[in-house]
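User: Just a sanity check before I run the rest of the batch. Below are the structure tokens for the first item. I only need the designed sequence back.
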């Protein structure tokens, strides 16, 4: 039996890392993952060795290296293809579980709604890169743009984070639309860590129960 594929999405500062850590701790304590199987935590961009190089190209803040928006899209797609082929598919085929910090939803939200690239083109590249692999459940950790800016005040922004308020508002709109899919769960991430954590746990229990 295939393992479960769980994805976390959200704008920067939404607390994905914290909740991924909380969920993995909890999953290791439960018997939801069969004893012989493992949990693999990964991310996009940068989940593979090649992907780490692609990530540093994508997030480099130097002006001379700033990619054209189609180049940017193709780099995210290349990172994803490598990630699906080297990590996600082989892991799920073994029955192991995967939690990924970001996946295809980020491209729709950032490149589609943020950069205003053609959604059909994005979806076509998604089909090529994923070859039919899609998450069992995606959590959108939802925070207002102002909260994201506030939470990142003492952090050095990467190239995408430097885009500013309007760009981020459009990205949020993209995530909002993606949440119309029943496999997406929107969680208000301005709640306490404890509340967010238990909401996520109850969605995972539901997912397993409804198999
Ligand atoms: P991270 O800081 O959450 O690891 O993500 C790196 C940045 O890359 C983040 O600002 C969102 C952006 N991104 C896209 O623009 N498109 C994508 O497809 C992905 C996966 C991330």
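Assistant: Here's the designed sequence for the first item:
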């Amino acid at each position: 039996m295939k393992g479960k594929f769980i994805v976390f999405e959200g704008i920067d500062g939404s607390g994905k890392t914290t909740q991924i850590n909380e969920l993995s701790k909890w999953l290791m304590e439960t018997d939801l993952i069969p004893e012989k199987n493992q949990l693999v935590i990964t991310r996009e961009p940068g989940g593979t060795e090649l992907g780490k190089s692609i990530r540093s190209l994508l997030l480099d803040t130097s002006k001379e290296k700033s990619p054209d928006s189609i180049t940017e899209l193709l780099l995210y797609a290349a990172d994803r293809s490598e990630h699906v082929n080297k990590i996600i598919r082989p892991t799920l085929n073994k029955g192991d579980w995967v939690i990924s910090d970001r996946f295809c939803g980020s491209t729709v939200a950032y490149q589609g709604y943020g950069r205003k690239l053609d959604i059909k083109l994005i979806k076509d590249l998604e089909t090529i890169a994923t070859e039919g692999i899609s998450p069992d459940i995606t959590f959108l950790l939802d925070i207002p743009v102002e909260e994201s800016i506030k939470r990142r005040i003492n952090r050095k922004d990467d190239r995408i984070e430097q885009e500013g308020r309007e760009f981020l508002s459009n990205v949020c709109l993209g995530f909002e639309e993606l949440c119309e899919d029943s496999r997406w769960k929107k969680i208000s991430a301005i709640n306490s860590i404890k509340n967010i954590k238990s909401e996520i746990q109850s969605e995972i229990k539901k997912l397993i129960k409804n198999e």
